[in-house]
User: Fold this.
Amino acid sequence: MAEPKGAVYLRAGGAEQFRKDTAKRFARRVNKTLLKIDDALPRYAAIPRDERSLRTQALLALVALCDHWLRDKQTKIDQHESFRAAAVQDLHEAAVAELRGLQNWAKAKTAIRKLIPKGSLKGHGAAPIRLMQQENWLEVLDTHHRRGQELKKHFLMWEASGQSCSFWEYLEKLDPVSKKELAEVSVRYVDDLIYRALFEVTFDNGLMRSRMSPVVQNMILSRFPRATVFANADEKLLDTSTWPSNALRGVSTGWAAFVLSPQEVLYAGMHVSGLFHHSSFLCGAPVLASGMLRVENGRIRGIHEKNGHYRSQDIHLMTFLKLLQRKLPGTDWHDVEYITFGGTPMTVGQKLNLPRRPAVPSRANRGQLSSAVASQQPVQQGNVRNLINRFNRG
Assistant:
């Protein structure tokens, strides 16, 4: 397959070529989006080839910038009045192609197999991985990814029926009502790796950041045009305060589902029963940990062990907590709520058996000054006043 025409813009020196191809003769460049592209291209070319995560983020930014420029100039493009459009479209095509080259699903599955060979139970840094519960394996094998727990019920009925047809043929012969009920719990898998990157959570100066929001996730699930999704997917401090949280009994908002991949990449999004579950992020692949988290303005506020598809155990969640300790320095873990799968509340500090920070005594509790020191105060103030008066008289 031939290399996209705009691939030259992504290489060393490509920024100069892009400026040349989009420059008006004797005119100063003023378009803000083009200036951002000018700045982003050399920074992308300087990223080492093995820094896959950084390259992915840079390419996502370039795609978003190209989408923004093309959308703003759509009228001129339709009327064939924009000489720059061809170069911007070529760059957009090349960036998308390079993203797919980095992150297509087939290569991702191959990478997982290499990372976790058959018989291995270790992930990044020899941390133990967690496979999906066996009852959910049917969900992965099903082309419609209908939820595992419902498929298991039908699987047991198929076994008991003694029918000679395959399980999948058996499902096709179900009565219309049962087929409809099963279709209503089809879990969406994020097999588009470009969209998956939008669910990624990054860490910056002790804060958590993401491009994901309920608006962006609903657009992805509703199959909005890619340009529309990226136009709304600005990176900002993660805040789950208003996120629907129907996965937790008695809780309506404030929590997000998360999984930690074997490569220690954290993904978070809305848990939507029957539609978007912990299995959605990595299409049922193994994880280091999974559960629920609560974040306010970039600061971690709570962690819940709730995760039905994987049922991460204590050893897996400890891997996640230790990663947070490394990524979020300065956090007082005794102020972060931790709730077990059974609903027992505690703090992360208690979970990790961390010592409490020494309390800073308030001014009200420091007591009064000793009489000797207190008696000196008026004298010192009086001396200062005398010196000022003498200076003024002189």
